[in-house]
Amino acid sequence: MPKSDIEIAREATMKPVAEIGAKLDIPSEHILQYGPTKGKISAEFIKSVQDRPDGKLILVTAITPTPAGEGKTTTTVGLGDGLNRIGKRTAICLREPSLGPCFGVKGGAAGGGYAQVVPMEDINLHFTGDFHAIGAAHNLLSALIDNHIYWGNALGIDTRRVAWRRVVDMNDRSLRAINSSLGGVSNGFPREDGFDITVASEVMAIFCLATDLEDLEERLGKIVVAYTRERKPVYARDLSAAGPMTVLLKEALSPNIVQTLENNPAFIHGGPFANIAHGCNSVIATKTGLKLADYVVTEAGFGADLGAEKFFDIKCRKAGLHPNAAVIVATVRALKMHGGVAKDALGEENVEAVRAGCSNLARHIRNVKSFSVPVVVAINQFINDTEAELSVVQDVARELGSHAIVASHWANGSAGTEELAKHVVELVEAGVDQFAPIYDDDMPLWDKVKTIATQLYGADDIMADQKIRKQFQDLQDAGYGDLPVCMAKTQYSFSTDPNLKGAPSGHTVPVREVRLSAGAGFVVVVTGEIMTMPGLPRVPAANSIRLNSEGLVEGLF
Question: Active-site positions?
Answer without folding.
Answer: 72, 74, 95, 106, 274, 302, 382, 410
